[in-house]
């Protein structure tokens, strides 16, 4: 009898952890496992704000997939998923197709521009290694051109960040570390550089503890960041952005050489376009993380939505939940193949830490508030813990952060 075919789409946090855990939970005779990803590397999205600012090289955020998964057990296919043909249990790829008995959709997130005029064309988003590398190179080019290009303007040295959620604030933290280095390298007076964050809410980090959010804001302001709160980006142009203050009719134009949009994320478009019923683009999964329409299809990470018991708002899309969902999925796949009942997913939030550059951070870990160096150290512990879970001590020694302390 042929073995069931398990196909995992996407090698982000959810897909990689699902693959690694499945090879541990199942024996070689239990199932054939295939992982599909558009690149031959896995990247840690949670480090991309550093690569985007240039405080770390983008190669630090990524690793070859074949060096992490057991290639004797897993068939890795480097290709782009185009659509899922549920009726025929097939995934259509750019260069072929794959049959499945069980499908795990872990295709992650896309930037959400909410239809704001000009953002797609004129703003960058921190989404992948490629987009992060482009941001770093663009900012560096603007600084390199300032003293050599006769048409260069002071506003070329202005960087606008759209949104002060966790991604925006973490990126600002890296920028305030990086800009002094760039000024030194390209002989630029630091007073000429402006970093402006535009946030629609009246405060930074809307979902965060207020005391910690204020700490982050004050730290970033002490390093020169200007916050425009209760202000919305209405349009991005080749010259900068047009913003509007709440309750005002007027549009203000801010000229800038770089606009980075961190105003929100949405699920990968493929599940909705493949005909899955979605809640704002995400599959609202059953207790054991399956599509309610098809119990051969699982969804984990940012393409899935899970509500806490009796709550109106779902859990936010994070790497933390994607990893825990992957662990639950691997256990349940074993149960299913043995004909046993599955276990419902129970999320165990461990807290949130946001970096503010190399040596500063804020966070709540197991209900304890942290700021400054202890928080920065905790962030590195969290980053390294993921590497440990994924690839053991070897991966931590190769890619980990704690040795930099
Ligand atoms: P992803 O990690 O997005 O992985 C999806 C994978 O699918 C990628 O490898 C992608 O290349 C691949 N893929 C996509 N489309 C296709 C296709 N068509 N064909 C083939 N492959 C495809 N969360 C935290 O918990 N802690 C943090 O500190 C944190 N920091 C963050 C910092 C930033 C700057 C950002 C933007 C997000 C951060 N998050 C953090 C959120 C976290 O990154 C996401 O929730 C997490 O990446 C979701 O994991 P995932 O496995 O669902 O998808
Ligand atoms: P987000 O949706 O959390 O934040 C977006 C911010 O942009 C909000 O504050 C919103 O008010 C603002 N905004 C939206 N439209 C705007 C407009 N037109 N003008 C001005 N401001 C506007 O998005 P994110 O920060 O990218 O986070 C995405 C997910 O990743 C979240 O679930 C977050 O928890 C997670 N994340 C976690 C960490 C961490 O744990 N350290 C770091 C980064 C991201």
Note the topology.
Layout: E1 5-9, H1 13-25, E2 32-37, E3 41-43, H2 48-53, E4 62-64, E5 74-78, E6 81-85, E7 90-93, E8 96-99, E9 102-105, E10 109-111, H3 119-122, E11 124-125, H4 129-146, E12 158-162, H5 166-185, E13 194-198, H6 210-222, E14 225-228, E15 231-237, E16 240-245, E17 251-255, E18 258-261, E19 265-267, H7 270-273, E20 283-284, E21 290-291, E22 294-299, E23 304-305, H8 319-337, E24 351-355, E25 361-365, E26 368-371, H9 372-399
Parallel strand pairs: 1-2, 1-9, 2-5, 9-22, 11-18, 12-13, 12-18, 13-14, 20-23
Antiparallel strand pairs: 3-4, 6-7, 7-8, 10-19, 15-16, 16-17, 21-22, 24-25, 25-26
Helix pairs in contact: 1-8
The protein binds flavin-adenine dinucleotide (FAD) and nicotinamide-adenine-dinucleotide (NAD).
The site of flavin-adenine dinucleotide has 32 residues, from helix 1, strand 2, helix 2, helix 5 and helix 8.
Keywords:
405 residues; alpha/beta; FAD/NAD(P)-binding domain; six-stranded mixed beta sheet; five-stranded parallel beta sheet; binds flavin-adenine dinucleotide; binds nicotinamide-adenine-dinucleotide; NADH-Q_oxidoreductase; oxidoreductase; NADH dehydrogenase; NAD(P)H dehydrogenase (quinone) activity; FAD/NAD-binding_dom
3D architecture notes:
With 405 residues, this protein is α/β, with parallel strands linked by helices. The protein folds into two domains: 5-38 and 79-111 and 266-349, 3-Layer(bba) Sandwich (FAD/NAD(P)-binding domain), CATH 3.50.50.100; 113-263 and 350-405, FAD/NAD(P)-binding domain. It is 31% helix and 27% strand. It contains nine helices and 26 strands. It has helices at 13-25, 48-53, 119-122, 129-146, 166-185, 210-222, 270-273, 319-337, 372-399, and strands at residues 5-9, 32-37, 41-43, 62-64, 74-78, 81-85, 90-93, 96-99, 102-105, 109-111, 124-125, 158-162, 194-198, 225-228, 231-237, 240-245, 251-255, 258-261, 265-267, 283-284, 290-291, 294-299, 304-305, 351-355, 361-365, 368-371. The strands form eight sheets. Strands 5-2-1-9-22-21 form a six-stranded mixed beta sheet, with helices on one face. It has a five-stranded parallel beta sheet with strand order 11-18-12-13-14. Strands 6-7-8 form a three-stranded antiparallel beta sheet. A hairpin with a 2-residue loop joins strand 7 and strand 8. The chain is globular, with a radius of gyration of 22 Å. The model has no long low-confidence stretch (mean pLDDT 97). The protein binds flavin-adenine dinucleotide and nicotinamide-adenine-dinucleotide.
